[in-house]
Batch of 2 targets.
Target 1
Amino acid sequence: MTNKPIETDILVVGAGPVGLFTVFEAGLLGLKCELVDNLDKIGGQCIELYPEKPIYDIPGVPYQSAEEHVLALEKQISPFEYGLHLNQRVSEIITR
Ligand SMILES: Cc1cc2nc3c(=O)[nH]c(=O)nc-3n(C[C@H](O)[C@H](O)[C@H](O)COP(=O)(O)OP(=O)(O)OC[C@H]3O[C@@H](n4cnc5c(N)ncnc54)[C@H](O)[C@@H]3O)c2cc1C
């Protein structure tokens, strides 16, 4: 991430499933997100801890591996413009 200020509507800390779906919901409302994650990839626990594990409790999806779930979320947010900042840990938030 550069030191240049970035203007955004929403700062999303964490690119796990919840952060990724937040980008989708915000996008539907016409809001832009900057997505920040400490890891070197998106997907949170799904991709870091159990990419091969089957997930059976996603509404409308009988079966998906955790990796497939993350790929689906990535595809779902692809129509929207968002900034992605990996290998970046948020340690402080200062509001003005
Ligand atoms: C082995 C295992 C199996 C599971 N199986 C299922 C299942 O079958 N079905 C189910 O519904 N749930 C399952 N879960 C739970 C599910 O993985 C979590 O509920 C889900 O990952 C939560 O998503 P999240 O986006 O809120 O958080 P996470 O996936 O935890 O992602 C949070 C992200 O935020 C980043 N982050 C945190 N703090 C900062 C910071 N300060 N700065 C930058 N980045 C930060 C982290 O690096 C991480 O990538 C399972 C969990 C485990 C461990």
Target 2
Amino acid sequence: MSATSEPSPLHGASESDGALRAGLVGAAEQLLRAVRDLSSARTTDAIAQVVKRTARALVDADGATFVLRDRGHCYYLDEDAIAPLWKGQRFPAETCVSGWVMQRGEQVAMEDIYVDPRVPHAAYRPTFVKSLVMTPVRRADPIAAIGIYWAHPHRATPAELALLQDLADTTAVALENAEVYAELERRVAERTEQLTLVNQELEAFSYSVAHDLRSPLSAILGFAEIIEDRHPSLSSEQITSFSREIVSAGKRMNTLIGALLDFSRSARATLDKIEIDLSSQARAIAERLLAATSPRPLELVIAADMRARADGALFDVMLTNLLSNAIKYTGKKPHARVEVGQLQHPEHGHTFFVRDNGAGFDPAQSQRLFSPFQRLHSDREFIGSGIGLATVARIAKRHDGAVWAESTLGQGATFYFTLP
Ligand SMILES: Nc1ncnc2c1ncn2[C@@H]1O[C@H](COP(=O)(O)OP(=O)(O)OP(=O)(O)O)[C@@H](O)[C@H]1O
Ligand SMILES: [Mg+2]
């Protein structure tokens, strides 16, 4: 109501018992409606809507604000009033009445705001406000406040103060529920995103498994059928050559299946972290890999005394993949160089790296590398199945670490990883 209308039955003791009772019944109904509306409000904004409307009507005031505690500030989120107040504004907590209330968890009522030193008079002078009540939401540890204002001098009655505190207490529960609800929604969204990602990965995975296994399998079946038919024109040399093709295709399948098993194991295996001598392990892996490739000059530089804590088996898979890439993609360089080292990264902290001077890749594509079956080189250039780095990324993630890459096309690549 405004200054010109009759005071509410709740305002004074001068009313008759009947009018007071009627007023109380009306207030109780409004409060009940607010409880019902608040119980279904899922956001702070929706809560503010209910609160400002109910608070103002409950005590027949000229304005209501809903103020949030925002660290050291008071944020006037919403208002319902006969003229603008401070909606959308933020004030330091020490300079406003809502701040005083939220810092102490005490309700205040002021019949004349201009005699109270807690009121920042300059902020109130442009407004209609003469009297106010400010009520903390969640008394033990206030998270908000409800402001009520009158355009005429008004002394709030104990019944009004009690009603406003009841509304504030209900609001506190609603705000806590909204927070729980928002957290649940956030988690559902996060899980959905994870599931979508896993699903996409799985789709790409099964597609590529089917695709990549089929070509060696077709070769095996084709050559085996020819041999089985025993055509009279088939020479024994041809049979030997076809058998060799069958063995080589079988080996390719075996390698791919091995890589797939590593990939799926990297997701499921339980971590058994041990202290790892990264320097000697890197040397052992590199030598093992080099022994399996046709001999060529390759300068191997491994920093001394590198140590990490990781699962032994998974770490072996990770480093094997990075080093096998470095060796593979330097295959066409006359002076190949592979370096394993460590550094202090400004953002990631202690970081290891595997660097080579090989074919490199387009840096704009660097994120793709870590998804399964994404290859930046064709089989004609470098043979591979595109599962190695996806496995590396998974292993790093399982150790709460990260992996990323830098490169200049044609000038080599550096793969970084952390194992916190
Ligand atoms: N050291 C590197 N230099 C240049 N390109 C690289 C390097 N390491 C990886 N890549 C690029 O990233 C792609 C993905 O690497 P990843 O190790 O996952 O697969 P791959 O080496 O092709 O096959 P494999 O599954 O047998 O390891 C490669 O196909 C290649 O294009
Ligand atoms: Mg690889």
